[in-house]
Structures are given as C-alpha cells and as structure tokens.
Specification:
alpha/beta; Rossmann fold; 2 domains; five-stranded antiparallel β-sheet
Length: 340
C-alpha cells in the first residue's frame, strides 16, 4: 500500500480531520487502477490517484467532504463526451470513494493507530470498509483485521461474513446488494530492499529505490563503501564475510534481496542464505556462466528446483543496460513489476 498510514495516525493524534480518496473501480482507461488511494487535508495531500484533472477534482471533493463532514461515492466520466465529464482523455469511467475521517473520534485514533502499527511492523492486516448509499447519503464503516487477531472497529451485519482471504490480492471490492459494497485492502509494509553490495551498481540501486519510496538496508564487507555519505538514508551494515546476514530478520512478500557483492564467492554465499528466507524477490547480478555455477551449487546442496527457478538471475529487466544507473533502472523496474 502506497499510502503512509503513519500520517493518518498523526492526524488523529493532533487531532485534525482529513479525507481518504479511493479509486474503487474503473471501466475502460483511467490514470490508475482500482485501489489507488490518497490522503487529503485542507492544505496538503499524500500519495496519488493518478494526477491530472481527476486528481484535482478529487482534491476539491475531498476538501468539501471535510468541510461538510460527510463521505461520498462518485461515478466519474473520463470520456469527455458527457456534460459532467472531468477534462481528461483517458476514455473510461471510474467510481471514487471520498471518505471523511473525524480525527478527534476515538474510533479513528484506534483504527489508524492499529493500521499504522501493522504497516510499520509489516504485519499482515486487512483494512475493511463497508460502504452504503441510501437516500442520497453515503455512509462508511471501518474495521481492521490483523492476522491471527480479532476484528477492531465496526461493520454492519450485511457486510458479514467476511470474504475468503486471498493472499495474492491487495484490493477487493465485493458487492453486498443494491447500494452496498465491502472494500478489503491488504495493509503491508513498504517494499524493503536488502542490498548486498555497496559498489557502483549498489549505490545507484539504493538511490533509485529510495526515490521510489522503498526502505533500504545495505550489507557490505568494505567499510569505506558503506559510509553515511554514500548511503545517507539507508541502514548500513558492515559484514566481513556475509555470514548469517539475514538471521533474525522476518521477511515476506514485500522484502527484496538484491545480490551485488564484489565477487562470485560472496554472491553465492549470500544466495544460499537468501533462498532460505521468505523474501518475495531474490535477484543476483552476473554473467550466464556465473549464474549457472551458482545454481549448480544450490542443486548440489539440495535446494529444490522450483526455488532455484524463482531466482531472478541475471537480475533485472532486459533493456540492454550498461552503466550502473541503467542497471539500477533494470533492477528496480523488475522489483516494481514483481511486488505489484
């Protein structure tokens, strides 16, 4: 989830009212797909639903919702053919939820505190919103369901039982009868990049990852290559031999291991550790010969063939990259594709 839920928690602690804008569904082309979300306050925004005229109108609607203290569900035309169309040439239609949040409400503080904690700790959690349109008004109930815990919040009877969980689905919108929907969004931590190697490619990869909103940890055996000046925003770990570097780190589908050390021996050592984690992405740089040697080593050590097949190596999208910056684009592009 792109939205930084810590900001929502901070607003409830001030307290200050805000609105959440969610792109519920789309028919035809639209700036972003269902599930895109942004936070709007009277003087700021966080995240985006795609920019352009649609986002500008959504900001107006959100600020109106804050002023009037009420939510709204809107069907928006993007074809330019209808009188009330938004000035965009996408050619589709979208449904948008403008959800007013009372920052001072105890239930808001409890809900967003829990959601922010789950996002920060990368704990699996479903964020549930029951939406009802009745007599020209839109009402929204909200709840959170952390994995293995009880439901926190309120849902109406018509929104139960909850839909079966789908681990691969970040976003689901379920119709629950005329004018009623249940929105289920998976709260997950930001993508965390574990970068093994702080050389030229590692440096550019970290910079691009941070630009894309990812968290970065850099492992490197050479102290002079993992200084604060080179990696000012990353967690830096000096490891003489790359032994046991992932021990004690809980990993999941948003954790990505990128192997770019200074030699084949270290690459293979990190790779044999990486395949024993639950990281959602494992990639290693190298020539076809080097990759083949590393994979043969894993086979000899009994690593299952399906695990080996899931390794991204040679790493990155095949765009003919040569410079460190170009290779970083390949790597981060592949990670974005795999973690969507």
């Amino acid at each position: 989830m792109e939205l930084n839920l810590e900001l929502c928690r901070e607003l409830t602690e001030e307290p200050a009212d805000f609105a959440l804008v969610t792109l519920l569904s789309s028919d035809g082309s639209s700036p972003r797909g269902p599930g895109a979300k942004m936070l709007v306050t009277p003087d700021a925004i966080d995240a985006t639903i795609g920019g352009g005229s649609l986002e500008l109108k959504a900001m107006e609607w959100a600020r109106e919702a804050i002023e009037k203290k009420r939510s709204a569900r809107l069907d928006v035309d993007l074809t330019g053919k209808e009188k009330d169309s938004v000035d965009m040439a996408c050619g589709g239609r979208v449904a948008i939820l403008i959800q007013y949040v009372c920052g001072a409400a105890p239930e808001s503080r409890a809900l967003f505190g829990l959601l922010a904690d789950c996002q920060k700790a990368r704990r699996a959690c479903l964020w549930l919103s029951a939406i009802e349109e009745k007599d020209g008004e839109t009402r929204v109930w909200q709840a959170a369901l952390p994995e293995g815990e009880a439901l926190t919040g309120e849902l109406p009877d018509w929104a139960r039982p909850l839909p079966a969980e789908d681990e691969k689905s970040e976003y689901r919108l379920v119709e629950c009868g005329a004018g009623r929907w249940l929105l289920a969004e998976r709260v997950s931590g930001l993508v965390h990049l574990y970068l093994c190697g702080g050389g030229h490619v590692g440096l550019k990869t970290a910079e691009l990852a941070e630009f894309c909103g990812m968290n970065v940890t850099v492992f490197e055996d050479r102290a002079e290559f993992v200084t604060e000046e080179r990696f000012p925003h990353a967690e830096r770990v000096i490891t003489p031999d790359y032994q046991g570097i992932f021990e004690g780190i809980p990993m999941g589908r948003n954790d990505c291991i990128v192997i770019l050390t200074r030699g084949h021996r270290y690459d293979t050592e990190v790779l044999r550790q990486a395949v024993r984690t639950k990281a959602g992405y494992v990639g290693m740089i190298g020539s076809k010969r080097k990759v083949a040697m590393a994979m043969d080593t894993l086979r000899q050590e009994g690593v299952p063939e399906e695990t080996i097949a899931a390794i991204h190596s040679p790493i990155g999208l095949p765009i003919g990259a040569e410079t460190p910056a170009e290779i970083a684009v390949c790597i981060i592009g592949e990670i974005i594709r795999e973690t969507r």
